[in-house]
From TrEMBL:
<dbReference type="InterPro" id="IPR039420">
    <property type="entry name" value="WalR-like"/>
</dbReference>
<feature type="DNA-binding region" description="OmpR/PhoB-type">
    <location>
        <begin position="126"/>
        <end position="227"/>
    </location>
</feature>
<dbReference type="Pfam" id="PF00486">
    <property type="entry name" value="Trans_reg_C"/>
</dbReference>
<dbReference type="GO" id="GO:0003677">
    <property type="term" value="F:DNA binding"/>
</dbReference>
<keyword id="KW-0805">Transcription regulation</keyword>
<dbReference type="InterPro" id="IPR016032">
    <property type="entry name" value="Sig_transdc_resp-reg_C-effctor"/>
</dbReference>
<keyword id="KW-0597">Phosphoprotein</keyword>
<dbReference type="InterPro" id="IPR001867">
    <property type="entry name" value="OmpR/PhoB-type_DNA-bd"/>
</dbReference>
<feature type="domain" description="Response regulatory">
    <location>
        <begin position="3"/>
        <end position="116"/>
    </location>
</feature>
<protein>
    <submittedName>
        <fullName>DNA-binding response OmpR family regulator</fullName>
    </submittedName>
</protein>
<keyword id="KW-0804">Transcription</keyword>
<dbReference type="Pfam" id="PF00072">
    <property type="entry name" value="Response_reg"/>
</dbReference>
<dbReference type="InterPro" id="IPR036388">
    <property type="entry name" value="WH-like_DNA-bd_sf"/>
</dbReference>
<keyword id="KW-0238">DNA-binding</keyword>
<dbReference type="InterPro" id="IPR001789">
    <property type="entry name" value="Sig_transdc_resp-reg_receiver"/>
</dbReference>
<keyword id="KW-0902">Two-component regulatory system</keyword>
<feature type="domain" description="OmpR/PhoB-type">
    <location>
        <begin position="126"/>
        <end position="227"/>
    </location>
</feature>
Length: 231
């Protein structure tokens, strides 16, 4: 049973969302503020966090950043802000998806299932692949990525993008290709979402993100992975 942590200060919303998730076979855990949320994350096995941005003690943005410092748990953000810039900001902090209030509980459950499916289906044929004499190391059987010998926390979407590139080095992917592979046919956001994920990956993997050597831009088309020598 997958455990879903719902973090929101609206009791009615917690009740409704928890009820829908439990009907679908999830273990729904409720937290009404950021402090409670972090306590659960540090003590319990949490498979996904549904996180409201407007919390009474600590902002959802700060909670998202704290989670990303310690874990790659998938995060679905809830917010009343609906602009593309707000969506991009949330993704830049490490969120995996973004749902605008008011929303249908059924849609939330569908998105939870989609995120969990995406986060669990990315596997390499090899258990471990290394590039540039081990400078970049993807340990697929543990879903871990090391850059310069340091374990890097990636979101499920970032990890899946990296795996997509690693499976097909030097192949050029358009942004639409990556949206279809990573986010699914029903994704309604713009291609800037992919740009933000790639930007996040570069900051985590590259010594010089402004001059990347792993994921490079193919102007007018998209991106390709030029990881150097494979070990």
């Amino acid at each position: 049973m997958k455990s879903i942590l719902i973090v929101d200060d609206e009791p009615k919303l917690l009740e409704v969302v928890s009820s829908y998730l439990r009907k679908e076979g999830f273990d729904a855990i409720e937290a009404s503020n950021g402090r409670e949320a972090m306590q659960y994350i540090q003590k319990e096995t949490i498979d996904l966090v549904v996180l409201d941005l407007m919390l009474p003690d600590v902002s959802g943005e700060e909670i998202c950043q704290r989670i990303r410092q310690e874990s790659s748990i998938p995060i679905l953000m809830l917010t009343a802000k609906a602009t593309e810039e707000d969506r991009i900001k949330g993704l830049s902090l490490g969120a995996d998806d973004y749902l605008v209030k008011p929303f249908s509980p059924r849609e939330l459950v569908l998105r939870v299932k989609t995120i969990l499916r995406r986060s669990g289906d990315g596997e390499l044929l090899a258990e471990q692949i290394k590039y540039n004499n081990g400078e970049l190391n993807i340990v697929a059987n543990k879903q871990e990525v090391f850059a310069g010998g340091k374990l890097i926390n990636l979101t499920p979407n970032e990890y899946k993008i990296l795996l997509t590139f690693a499976r097909h080095p030097n192949r050029i992917f358009s942004r639409d290709d990556l949206i279809e592979r990573i986010l699914g046919f029903d994704y309604e956001g713009g291609t800037r979402t992919i740009d933000q994920h790639v930007k996040n990956l570069r900051h985590k993997l590259e010594k010089d993100p402004k001059h990347p050597k792993y994921i490079v831009t193919v102007f007018g088309i998209g991106y390709k992975f030029t990881g150097g020598s494979y070990v």
